[in-house]
Amino acid sequence: MKKLYDIVIIGAGIAGSAIARELSRYDLKIALLEKEADAAFGVSKANSGIVHAGFHSAPGMVKSRLCVRGNYLYGELKDELDLPFERKGELMIARGAEDEEKLEFFLKQGNQLGVPDLKIVRGEELRRLEPQLSDEITAALYAPSAGVINPYETVYRFVQNAMQNGVEFFPDSEVVAVAEGIVETTEQTFETKYIINAAGLNAAKIAEMAGLHTFDIKPRKGQEYLLDRKASALVNHVIFPLPSKTSKGILVIPTLDGTVMIGPSAEDGRDDDTTTNDVFDAILASTRTIIPSITPKLLISAFAGVRPVATGDDFIIGPTGVKGFINVAGIQSPGLTAAPAIAEAVVAILKKNGDLLLNKKSDFIAYVPRHPKARTMGKEDLSRSVALDPHFGKLVCRCEHVSEAEIRQAVREGASTLDGIKLRTRAGMGRCQGGFCTYRILEIMAEELGVPMTELTKKGANSALLAKDLKNDR
Amino acid sequence: MSEQHVVTCTVCPNGCEITVTVENGQAVSVSGNRCKRGEPYAKAEVVNPVRTLTALVRLNGGECAMCPVKTSRPVFKKDLKALAEKALSITVDAPVRCGDVLVSDFDGNGADLLAARSIGAKG
Amino acid sequence: MTDKPVVIVGGGPAGLIAATAAAEQGANVILVDREKHAGGILNQCIHTGFGLAFYKEELTGPEFAERAAASALVKGVKFMNETSVLSVSGKTVSVINEHGVSDIDAGAVVLCTGCRERPRGALHIPGTRPAGVYTAGLAQKLVNIAGFLPGKRIVILGSGDIGLIMARRLTLEGAEVLAVVEVMPAPGGLRRNIVQCLDDFGIPLYLSHTVTDIRGKNRVEGVTIAKVDEKFNPVEGTSFDLDCDTLLLSVGLIPENEIAETAGAEIDPASNGMLVDENLMTTVDGVFGCGNALHVHNLVDDLAVEAAQAGKNAALYAAGHVFAPCTIPVVNDGAFGNVVPARVSGTQPAVIRFRVRRPQKGAAVSVGTFSKRFAHLQPNTMESVTVPADAFTDKKEAVLCLNNTL
Q: How many CB pairs under 8 A join B and C?
């Protein structure tokens, strides 16, 4: 069966979902394809969640401009999509005179790019901002516009709002063939005027399917370690060392959820999600040179993500030799920050081509409040929510205070796996890491989805959670 | 002819190391036990060891899918796996009361299978 | 003085017994529990080994829970089931359930919040993140309550009691347990559980070994196991692979004190347990703590004694009793893993519970002028001494000392 579309977007990560949401403003028939069981299950799942100020990369690069613009746009999106986003500010630190000269360089570069309110802070002022900072640190470049965001929640907000505005989302749909105007998945064939290749780590593979051999994607793995909420008392800003050639270095990140993340490593050529002890030791040692009071006892979880690094180290955004095929590739850091600006750039490309009618919908839904969360509600709001839906009165995840109502809502919004529930609601992300609540979540999922418990998975195909039903299996 | 066996008592959490003297296939004396309940356990342990089985049976129409069960007295250790499998093949209807005899003479040697939790009917 | 209720937080064994003891003092007692049925984790502990000291009978976990709940009910304890505590502030307990959020103005509060299992993240086991890595307690709930096998070929990391018990349970329900792997040179669980859960079924126990890698992209496909040296680092050339679909973790329990933290009760950073005085009162006036939320017990029977003391004292407090000030800090001489309580008054006999750091043969434990000899002391076993009031001769501090008497 063939379906006729205006635009098919390949990949529901941060870039693909931001593009889908932006394009959903227009009167177009759009499909968003994802090879995994849920959106954000690729590169975006293991992102540090920083909305960078944008002073890091050289003015000539594509990503520099998009980063600063993206940072600005998150201010608007915060209101429109009720995104959890907080401008905590960034500090790039220096130890001694030689380092401080480099801060001056980044200050100048940032000013040139239009990063707002940059300044170098020292002494008392610096300690006031960050009291636990190591004594060896003499100065820092302070960028108050930087912030933190929840990366996967942002993806889900984009996808959900895009769907409200008519975009069709196809999870579990791996693309197997691409030609001019045709996208074939494991499930079906799409006929389309435009194809947007936002396939993350697989972007080069998708381009090759279309006959394009213009770039390559190399994986660069990053391990990150999550610390208990107790650590949040130790750090107020996103803190960077001076960057190296391959990465922004080992960061200390106070997350939106009140935990602290340290990392990432930068391991070229690795595309697996394993974590290793030597890298943990190195990350911890590096972190302790910034905030000495961080100890290994605070560790609650470890994970690893892979950045898609394109040839040339920059974003590759633009039309190609294949008619209607647009690349959005190599979206590594600062891809999360840039995503809303990348979406704008894609609209500009379509406008320039001029063969697609871009009429704004009159009924576009721009403002969408988030569903309430028990964890962030005051007692009175919580009581009101319980009166409307008694499921709010049952806390399923005790560590993160996630109610049964939120779990059910997540399933209704499309979460079909345990990881999907976890990323959408935070259930299972706290101190016990799901030890207490996993079984109850599985029960609720089975009920909402109408499937037997043994069919439930952690993250889609071949990741079944239970091996045998003692009551019903022989 | 006498021989000595050392067994770890599992009757209670003390875990006493008990020495059993066996003569002509009969356990004649024990030492090292901190309480008198260790004696019959240790003697049986060297001749034909026994254990209380705890397992699950399927529950029909109950608030839980399964009902925990135990044997009214220890059964032969060598039979544990087969008896657990046998328990799992049994379905009982809710409600059940803790202590209910679900199967009498469950092991063929006089041990009954008892419900070990009261579970109400669903709804 | 008042008829304000004694509020018990948690309906596990500690909560049930504390509630009963408080009700026996004539207090109006409310027990708040998140579950539909009281009993806490005992309901999933379907093995025997409970109640020998407390009920003079060997019971399974659910049987113990049922008895404890029945006693509480008979004594007039009011149960607030399917209710979570959001916070405790002063002696006001904020709760949420299907009817909304409400505040209970308590005369005294007893925190019986139990403990949680140490998860994979806190251990930092390297490797992939597939389905099939579970804590032993979650597996216990999946099998014993829900009736599901989490996997068919299972490796267990850690020889804590729950892991050992699960090795037997999974074997009896038809799974294959390939190995139990313990990083320490001695098992973490009780000796009897090694015998009746592993030896009875021929399950190998690898002491001084650990899991160095987890394989499998979507579901666990195998683990790598290696011997470790005295510093717990893997020894090169000793590693071997086991193909399995599940890794269970039984690597320790941590007191669960998120509610105590909302109350502002001081927490011992070493044990994560609440700091209490000889009356089991926390550093917050009128808020008491007991059970595994204080320190993880080996036996429910010992825990019951402590819980009864906490419940009784909470009732006395609510009725206006003023306890002698506990001004003497109890100091650990360094030989003990943890010591409870943190402060004593020196005016009444005090029960001091402790665990040693290293195994001891023939050692004396002393405080002030009091001393007691122990034939054996094991780090995995909690012990206690009851110290008479007049033994606390030094009013500045009471040092708990371990002296080798051999």
A: 86
> Which domains, from first to last, does chain B contain?
2-47 (2.20.25), 54-115 (3.10.530.10)
Set out the domains of chain A in order of their start, with CATH numbers: 1-85+148-216+311-370 (3.50.50.60), 86-147+219-306 (3.30.9.10), 374-455 (1.10.10.1100)
Domain that holds residue C345: 325-406
Known catalytic membership, residue A52: yes
| Partner C, chain B 6-25, Cβ-Cβ below 8 Å | 8-15
- The alpha-carbon gap from C9 to the nearest alpha carbon of chain A, in Å, equals 14
- Give me the interface pTM, i.e. the ipTM: 0.94
**In a structure prediction context, what are the per-residue pLDDT tens digits for chain A, which is 474 residues long?**
567 999 999 999 999 999 999 999 999 999 999 999 999 999 998 899 999 999 999 999 999 999 999 999 999 999 999 998 999 999 999 999 999 999 999 999 999 999 999 999 999 999 999 999 999 999 999 999 999 999 999 999 999 999 999 999 999 999 999 999 999 999 899 999 999 999 999 999 999 999 999 999 999 999 999 998 889 999 999 999 998 777 778 999 999 888 999 999 999 988 888 888 899 999 999 999 999 999 988 888 888 999 999 999 999 999 999 999 999 999 999 999 999 999 999 999 999 999 999 999 999 999 988 888 999 898 999 999 999 999 999 999 998 999 999 999 999 999 999 999 999 999 998 888 888 999 999 999 999 999 999 999 999 989 999 999 999 986
Same domain for C70 and C113, yes or no, is: yes
Query: Do residues B41 and C58 make contact, with C-beta atoms less than 8 angstroms apart?
Result: no
Asked if residue C213 and residue C95 are part of one domain, the reply reads: no
Of the three residues C231, C251, C271, the one that is the final residue of a domain is C251
* Chain C nearest C-alpha distance from A186 (Å): 19
Residues of chain B positioned with their CB less than 8 A from the CB of A470: 56, 58, 65-66, 88
List chain C residues with CB under 8 Å of A383: 100-101
Q: What whole-number distance in Å separates Cα of residue A331 and Cα of residue A309? A: 7
Q: Pick the closest to residue A313 from A40, A49, A57 (CA basis).
A: A57
**Phi-psi region at A370: left, alpha or beta (left = phi > 0; alpha = psi -120 to 50):** beta
**C134 and C190 inside one domain:** yes
Q: Which residues are CB-contacts of A428 (< 8 A; sequence separation ≥ 6)?
A: A397, A400, A418, A421, A422, A434, A437, A438, A441
Q: Are residues C262 and C286 in the same domain?
A: yes
CB contacts < 8 A, A to B, total 9
Q: Give the model confidence (pLDDT) of C47-94 as tens digits.
A: 999 999 999 999 999 999 999 999 999 999 999 999 999 999 999 999
**Closest among A333, A142, A147 to A246, alpha carbons compared:** A333
Across the interface, whether the CB atoms of C195 and B84 are under 8 A apart is answered no
Give the Cα separation of A223 and A241 in Å (integer). Answer: 17
Total tally of structural domains belonging to chain C: 3
Q: Do C60 and C142 lie in a common domain?
A: no
Both C56 and C99 in one domain: the answer is: yes
**Does residue C401 sit in helix, strand or coil?**
strand
Residue B103 C-alpha, separation from nearest chain C C-alpha, in angstroms = 18
Whether A341 contacts A54, CB under 8 Å: no
For the domain that residue C204 is a member of, what is the CATH number? 3.50.50.60
Specify the DSSP class assigned to residue C5.
P
Q: Is A450 left (phi over 0), alpha (psi -120 to 50) or beta?
A: left
C196, closest residue in chain B (CA to CA): B10
Query: Is B52 in CB contact (< 8 Å) with chain C?
Result: yes
The residues pairing with C78 across neighbouring beta strands, listed in sequence order, are: C30
Query: Taking CA atoms, what residue in A is nearest to B67?
Result: A471
Q: Which of A406, A447, A463 to mutate to test binding with chain C, by most C CBs within 10 Å of its CB?
A: A463
C219–A462 C-beta distance less than 8 A = yes
The reply to whether C125 and C203 lie within a common domain is: yes
- Counting Cα atoms < 13 Å in the Cβ hemisphere of A180 gives 6
Domain identity same for C30 and C80: yes
